[in-house]
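This protein record is not my work; I was only asked to verify it. Would you go through it and say whether the fold makes sense for this chain? Here is the record exactly as it was handed to me.
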Amino acid sequence: MEKFIKILLFISRWFVGIVFIYSGFVKGVDPLGSMYKFIDYFNAFGMEWAIPLSFFLSVLQSVIEFAIGIAILLNFKIKISSWAALLFMAFYTPLTLILAINNPVHDCGCFGDALILTNWQTFWKNVILFIPVIFIFIKRKKIQSLLHCYEQWAGIAVGAGLMLIISIYSYNHLPVIDFRPYKTGTYIPEKMIVPEGAPADEWKSTFIYKKNNVEKEFSLDNLPDSTWTFVDAKHILIKKGYEPPIHDFEITSPDGDDITDLLLSDNNYTFLLISYKLEGYNYKNQKQIDKLAEFCNENRYNFCGITASSDDDIKKYYEKTGTNFDFYGADEITLKTIVRSNPGIVLLKSGTIIDKWHNNDIPDVNKFSNSLIGQSISKYKKLGDNFYILLLIVSFGLLISVYLQIRKSIIK
């Protein structure tokens, strides 16, 4: 029985540790995405006063989750980390139940954009996760670490520090891993296709009619005769159908015309200056943006702005910068999803996202080669190689740590 409990504890620690590490990591690599989710919830619950804390809370949550996961997985300060995990789940499980019932925001954001869950899926995920967390907490005194106290704290600090560095880097540049549907290399039209035979949304419609000052509800199959007067209709989504990864990409001209297809079918290079709100536009590197626009004009490339701002805000932008390129309209949430920067630059060609730049990394036109595609692919190949090397090093270090823990436990 004792051996069975040890095996169960080992499996529980691995399961809980990996889930916490994964959850913290996917939030940490995209801190702005988590910040937007906090803002959505604060607005939904009338807590606008807390919006200034959104970014701090997004980073703090990812660091705490990642640190708890590292501690439980590697058996660091298990008494404290089990308390932390228990309190974490005790707070979020009932909270996600409230969110599932009221559904103020459709996407919970618990795994960032890496894994989209509904509020009910999130709640049941937390219920399942809560079980091994409680088991670890109950048996915490039976879990012993052979490492010194300072070694365990050092391990937790390294994990938390690593997550903090990744979050800060991703905020000041672009996410080190892009889980969104608009990542570099994406052919946008392909992501907008709804497969043949895919399930459609199912709605329940109720129609309200009035007769003799009495209102009554009717279903679509049981509508009243002409002596009744129509008042209103209610439509409730009872089953969500298939939704393509990109379902809200629509670009409109200043006159309100849909130019999405024209933009996606253009074989020329198109640089998009993305600013979801010009009110919060960062003018820090405006000179480099102006040079890029001039470079495009000289080489007959397309350059335009995309924003959700009003015509008055666009006019103020023109007056402040002295630029004259066109601005087009798009949904604010879509623009926030495309690039995590205000402003940011996106390079398109024939509907494919060739490259993206944060405002802190606006490209130097003097370093552009003849082939923008070749240059971008080479850049991302180099970044990809460096990332995979780092990933291998970190994975190797974790495997060695886990192996040492297992070996010490067996020897003991």
User: Anything to note?
Assistant: The chain has a mean pLDDT of 83. The longest helix spans residues 372-411.
